[in-house]
């Protein structure tokens, strides 16, 4: 399998954390792929017309896009039902947690793009909106932190862990741990997992 990959992308990191958790990392060939919102990657377009990563190319040439789709495919290769509960309330809880972590990542990517603009082109309204959504999501995750510890590790934990790590990577100035001690403690346990240590973001 070939994965269009970047050491900076939190969405790619989700896939690699999942691959390590499932014992499949050595079956993936990572191809360094640079993507930008303002300029499609012409080399990536034949595999993914959206020019987005992660993109997984299978041995038969078929292509999977979107991190959660790729993660569930990897879960199926490992036997299924490992990171994605097969049915019932546990599945919906895992997917809901994934959606919350992934949704906050979407917001943070947009916020970073806004912060990188020349100051005179930035929108105070957007900054305020992103800040409110980030703070309220962290508050929700703080309320859920004890239950995160009590439930089986899965795709929701991976998404939330990668999101919090991205806050450290790109938004260290926010000090997200202030007021969120339970979530901060849970994140330390995420960071200690071998899969997280093997996939830490690198600005290269």
Automatic annotation (TrEMBL):
Cite the source lineage: Bacteria, Pseudomonadati, Pseudomonadota, Alphaproteobacteria, Acetobacterales
Q: What is this protein called?
A: Glutathione S-transferase family protein
SUPFAM superfamilies in the record: GST C-terminal domain-like, Thioredoxin-like
List residues of the GST N-terminal domain: 1-82
Protein source organism: Plastoroseomonas hellenica
List the InterPro entries: Glutathione-S-Trfase_C_sf, Glutathione_S-Trfase_N, Thioredoxin-like_sf
What CDD domains has UniProt attached to this entry?
A: GST_C_6
Pfam families with a match to the protein in the record:
GST_C_2 (PF13410), GST_N_2 (PF13409)
